[in-house]
């Protein structure tokens, strides 16, 4: 390139422009000193429009140019792109380095504070546990894959569970899911996860002790997908019918795919766009589970519902759904991430193509990450395929910390309090495989495969397609099966083979790199890798020794493994990092020894199978040496083959289910339960689960009922002791004489049930519609006017009893009472009150005699609701951390310090820790507070009021929307018959009130106050999680009777 003029102009332009590019600078485009300046042109105009994927094509076009001037211009273009790409990557790397450093400091600070709270000194056991031993509840996985290796042990487990009738719910909501002819690879949502969940459901359904398995997914009736995805129910037939005890399978037993309709009915949409419809799925799934639980109870439960023993979410969207279902039903939850958002975000940022904002816009990654954090808050067990996923991926999350998990586990082993801190267990359970269809050739004593010399016309067509590449097809085959992706490291494999002459003499190399018609039509990244491989084959003159067929079917893959085994070959996975390595298990099942990367899942697989050699994927000499060793040493090859075949059953679905059920078996059973009512008249009308109603007590509440004087030190671990009826009555009489009756969890069991025959609670079950007033963005005066307008609009329906009202707010019950009475309304105008941001549920008492003195309020507190939400509540340990945090927030004003947040003891209750926000400008945003809590393993739901002056910490699975689901479970109030009134904005739980099968009326107008700036710092836009075009959401201007009537008529609730 004579003169290299483009280099000089490149350097001159950098000197002219400096560190940045002035976008406002006038263009000096086409001419400089009488000639065109490509350097200046690309600095000013083209540099911001680069696309890294075009670099290779640019190089190819430049190299093909005959004109030196044109070639120089194209090369200059490419240099500018590379320069800008490098600069952008460096900038992002710097920002990420600062962010990671800050995160590391935050985590270390959180650990120190958590350790300070857990004041006892660490024992030697706490200090000495291996980092790999990650379970917070004492399950050691050190030095082995945590599975049941003893058949006798599982036989005992199966015998123990054979009389049990377990109901298991699996959830996987994206992609196209069906039992047969799965369209794997159709799109990015229909891949390995689809096959995994279907086969897991099928295998569990055939396991002793499991009566029914439901795999819940999305019902799709779109014209561009097969009709089978619109079928509501599909039964999964067991693979091995002889192992399935059909005589024990009842009317509803077995494994099923259940398709729940949610989102657009006629559209198949990608997983990134499913988030606005999660609430709708949860409501539909809740209805299904309730129906099946009752049906199973009638069939095999003696009339008592058979609740799921576990709800298992797969991927972030299903995990978020499982957490809400787990909280609503009080059922244990487990979670499998499959792939994780934080890991994907870091990988995308490292590529330097997109900013964090662009990534979030495309992938909704921040909503996904928050869903995964919620899974850590709610799950009993996190199931992974490998340790690498735990140690390197889950450890990126605020809610999981390997070191803190060790400390908590050691304390639990010793029976020492963790002060309200919780960490989910981790269980490494590799995916299962079905091996019954695999036929393995026998080998002789020298390691020769019988029939290896035989070739016939009956051989699979793919064999001849591969063999045609080889000069000597009888040499052992080195097989690699991976798409041509840089991460799969196939180019290093070809270099290793090409530079090792002894290996070339002994073996052939087969590369199965997906399907292609034309290299130019492939993605730029894949085409670049494939082109490089072809050039390496030419460079090392490997023609006749390397096969790279253009096409193969999924059904050909087992035959390809068989061919490699028939030639006494070796399977290799040289990826830079392999999350699991399913192909290694498939190869071992066909009798192939393996060479695999030492990074990731293959380490766990090799530990179990002991059937090959692990290598550094960056060391091509090590790769060549390992391959040569296996193909040249027949005894080693035979030993690795036999080890793999002997141990492969440990990766079967049967073994997977054994381990899975052994983990579930140790979970503390939780399910909806309440005492039977002593009022037989009410009991006979009950529609609640199990046909039993608890004697919810009518309590005379003191206006100061929310004082924390009797709060438990650690509500998450309280076990209440029931007193005798005499003691309960005497204790209540003494309290009434003193005029003090408190609604706390401790003395809730010692309060006398109402025997007045009040029909208020049965009326809840008779309502045709429930109107929920949850307007946070208005003044108290406007709130009362909204209530009165709603009352006026539904006067006739209220009189007939077909419509009832619920008030949902962040206020305490005493504040609500004062507000209603002062505005001329009665508590009995409402059926229920959801108070303290969803942490308390009250019913008004219709018996005026309950009011012992003017200072007391007659209300019924639902203690069963507390039993539903108390899961992982930090109690006193959480309060102590929050008080210390509040004390650390001060504003310096000269020599004085003013507090920013102070504890609000008057408004706090057992399950709501309330704080007053004095300076809203200095207090952290919700996402920062959530991070602070999670880093210290404190699980809670953080909420700011609409104006930012109230800050509430409630149980992690409590919320106002969850309280409405509880009313459905407890009293049978259909969610689709609920209408929720909200303002244009609300408290930080606002988004939860907008979705689901409920109807929502958004009251718009100038009466809405502007929300606090604290609500502006959302981790993701509201539009990412709420479908405002949903037919269940109606917006109306104003709150007059006519406005409300018009909105209700759109829902066909009121007639014209």
TrEMBL record:
Sucrose phosphatase-like domain sequence ranges: 884-990
Reactions catalysed: beta-D-fructose 6-phosphate + UDP-alpha-D-glucose = sucrose 6(F)-phosphate + UDP + H(+)
Pathway: Glycan biosynthesis; sucrose biosynthesis; sucrose from D-fructose 6-phosphate and UDP-alpha-D-glucose: step 1/2
Glycosyltransferase is among the record's keywords: yes
SUPFAM superfamilies: UDP-Glycosyltransferase/glycogen phosphorylase (SSF53756)
GO molecular function: sucrose-phosphate synthase activity
EC number assigned by the record: 2.4.1.14
CDD domains tied to this protein: GT4_sucrose_synthase, HAD_SPS
Family annotation (InterPro entries): Glyco_trans_1 (IPR001296), HAD_sf (IPR023214), SPP-like_dom (IPR006380), SPS (IPR044161), SPS_C (IPR035659), SPS_pln (IPR012819), Sucrose_synth_GT-B1 (IPR000368)
GO biological process: sucrose biosynthetic process
Family: Belongs to the glycosyltransferase 1 family.
Role according to the record: Plays a role in photosynthetic sucrose synthesis by catalyzing the rate-limiting step of sucrose biosynthesis from UDP-glucose and fructose- 6-phosphate. Involved in the regulation of carbon partitioning in the leaves of plants. May regulate the synthesis of sucrose and therefore play a major role as a limiting factor in the export of photoassimilates out of the leaf. Plays a role for sucrose availability that is essential for plant growth and fiber elongation.
Protein name: Sucrose-phosphate synthase
Organism: Ananas comosus
Gene designation per UniProt: LOC109724677
């Amino acid at each position: 390139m004579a003169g290299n003029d483009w280099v000089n102009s490149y350097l001159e332009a950098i000197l002219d422009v400096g560190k940045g590019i002035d976008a406002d600078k006038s263009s000096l485009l086409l001419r400089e000193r009488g000639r065109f300046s490509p350097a200046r042109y690309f600095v000013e105009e083209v540099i911001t429009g680069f696309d890294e994927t075009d670099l290779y094509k640019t190089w190819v076009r430049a190299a093909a140019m005959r004109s030196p001037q044109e070639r120089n211009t194209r090369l200059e273009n490419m240099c500018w792109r590379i320069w800008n790409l490098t600069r952008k990557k460096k900038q992002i790397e710097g920002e990420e380095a600062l962010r990671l450093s800050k995160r590391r400091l935050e985590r270390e600070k959180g650990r120190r504070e958590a350790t300070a709270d857990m004041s006892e000194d660490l024992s030697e056991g706490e200090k000495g546990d291996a980092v790999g031993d990650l379970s917070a509840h004492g399950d050691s996985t050190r030095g082995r894959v945590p599975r049941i290796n003893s058949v006798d042990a599982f036989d005992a487990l199966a015998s123990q569970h054979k009389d049990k009738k377990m109901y298991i719910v699996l959830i996987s909501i994206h992609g196209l899911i069906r039992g047969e002819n799965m369209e794997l690879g159709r799109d990015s949502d229909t891949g390995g996860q689809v096959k995994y969940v279907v086969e897991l459901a099928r295998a569990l359904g055939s396991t002793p002790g499991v009566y029914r398995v439901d795999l819940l997914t999305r019902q799709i009736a779109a014209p561009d997908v097969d009709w089978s995805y619109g079928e509501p129910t599909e039964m999964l037939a067991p693979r091995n019918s002889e192992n399935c005890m059909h005589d024990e399978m009842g009317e509803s037993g077995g494994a099923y795919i259940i398709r729940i309709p949610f989102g657009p009915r006629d559209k198949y949409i990608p997983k990134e766009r499913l988030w606005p419809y999660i609430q709708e799925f949860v409501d539909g799934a809740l209805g299904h589970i309730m129906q099946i639980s009752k049906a199973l109870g009638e069939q095999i439960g003696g009339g008592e519902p058979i609740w799921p023993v576990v709800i298992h979410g797969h991927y972030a969207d299903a995990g978020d759904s499982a957490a809400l279902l787990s909280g609503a039903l009080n059922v244990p939850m487990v979670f499998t991430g499959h792939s994780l958002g934080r890991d994907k975000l870091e990988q995308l940022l490292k590529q330097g193509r997109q900013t964090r904002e662009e990534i979030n816009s495309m992938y909704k990654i921040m909503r996904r990450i928050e869903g995964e954090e919620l899974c850590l808050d709610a799950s009993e067990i996190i199931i992974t395929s490998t340790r690498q996923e735990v140690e390197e991926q889950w450890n990126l999350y605020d809610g999981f910390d390997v070191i803190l998990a060790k400390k908590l586990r050691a304390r639990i082993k010793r029976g020492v309090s963790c002060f309200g801190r919780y960490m989910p267990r981790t269980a490494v359970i590799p995916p299962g495989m079905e091996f019954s269809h695999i036929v393995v050739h026998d080998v002789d004593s020298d390691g020769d495969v019988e029939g290896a010399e035989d070739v016939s016309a009956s051989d699979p067509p793919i064999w001849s397609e591969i063999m045609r590449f080889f000069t000597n097809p009888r040499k052992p085959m080195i097989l690699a099966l991976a798409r041509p992706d840089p991460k799969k490291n196939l180019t290093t494999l070809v270099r290793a083979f090409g530079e090792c002459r002894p290996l070339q003499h002994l073996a052939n190399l087969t590369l199965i790199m997906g399907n292609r018609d034309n290299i130019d039509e492939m993605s730029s990244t894949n085409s670049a890798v494939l082109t490089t491989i072809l050039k390496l084959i030419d460079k090392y003159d490997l023609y006749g020794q390397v096969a790279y067929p253009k096409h193969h079917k999924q059904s050909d893959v087992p035959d390809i493994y068989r061919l490699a085994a028939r030639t006494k070959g070796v399977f290799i996975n040289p990826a830079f990092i392999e999350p699991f390595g399913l192909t290694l298990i498939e190869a071992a099942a066909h009798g192939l020894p393996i060479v695999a990367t030492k990074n990731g899942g293959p380490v766990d697989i090799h530990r179990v199978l002991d059937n090959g050699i692990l290598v550094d994927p960056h060391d091509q000499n090590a790769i060549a040496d390992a391959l040569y060793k296996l193909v040249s040493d027949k005894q080693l090859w035979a030993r690795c083959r036999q080890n793999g075949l002997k141990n492969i059953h440990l990766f079967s679905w049967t073994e997977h289910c054994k381990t899975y059920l052994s983990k579930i078996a140790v979970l503390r059973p939780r399910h909806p339960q309440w005492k039977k009512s002593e009022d037989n008249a009410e009991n006979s009308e009950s529609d609640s689960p199990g046909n039993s109603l608890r004697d919810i007590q009518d309590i005379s509440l003191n206006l100061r009922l929310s004082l924390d004087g009797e709060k438990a030190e650690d509500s998450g671990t309280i076990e209440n002791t029931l007193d005798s009826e005499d003691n309960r009555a005497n204790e209540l009489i003494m309290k009434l004489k003193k005029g003090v009756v408190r609604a706390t969890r401790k003395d809730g069991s010692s309060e006398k049930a109402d025997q007045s025959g009040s029909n208020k609670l049965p009326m809840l079950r008779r309502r045709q519609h429930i109107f929920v007033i949850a307007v946070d963005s208005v003044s108290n005066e406007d709130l009362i006017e909204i209530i009165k307008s709603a009352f006026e609009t539904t006067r006739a329906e209220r009189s007939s009893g077909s419509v009832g009202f619920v008030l949902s707010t962040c206020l305490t019950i005493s504040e609500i009472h004062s507000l209603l009475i002062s505005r001329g309304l009665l508590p009995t105008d409402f059926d229920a009150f959801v108070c303290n941001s969803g942490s308390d549920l009250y019913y008004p008492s219709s018996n005026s005699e309950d009011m012992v003195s003017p200072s007391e309020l007659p209300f019924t507190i639902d203690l069963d609701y507390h039993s539903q939400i108390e899961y992982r509540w930090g109690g006193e340990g959480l309060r102590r951390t929050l008080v210390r945090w509040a004390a650390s927030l001060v504003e310096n004003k000269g020599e004085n310090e003013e507090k920013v947040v102070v504890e609000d003891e008057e408004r706090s209750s057992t399950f709501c820790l309330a704080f007053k926000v004095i300076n809203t400008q200095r207090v952290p945003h919700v996402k920062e507070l959530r991070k602070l809590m999670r880093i210290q393993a404190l699980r809670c739901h953080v909420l700011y009021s609409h104006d930012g002056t109230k800050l509430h910490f409630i149980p992690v699975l409590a919320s106002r929307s969850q309280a409405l689901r509880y009313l459905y479970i407890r009293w049978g109030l259909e969610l689709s018959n609920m209408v929720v009134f909200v303002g244009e904005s609300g408290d930080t739980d606002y988004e939860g009130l907008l979705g689901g099968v409920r109807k929502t009326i958004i009251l718009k107008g100038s009466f809405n106050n502007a929300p606090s700036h604290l609500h502006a710092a959302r981790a993701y836009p509201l539009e990412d999680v709420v479908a405002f075009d949903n037919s269940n959401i109606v917006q109306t201007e104003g709150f007059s009777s006519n406005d409300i009537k018009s909105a209700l008529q759109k829902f066909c609730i009121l007639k014209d």
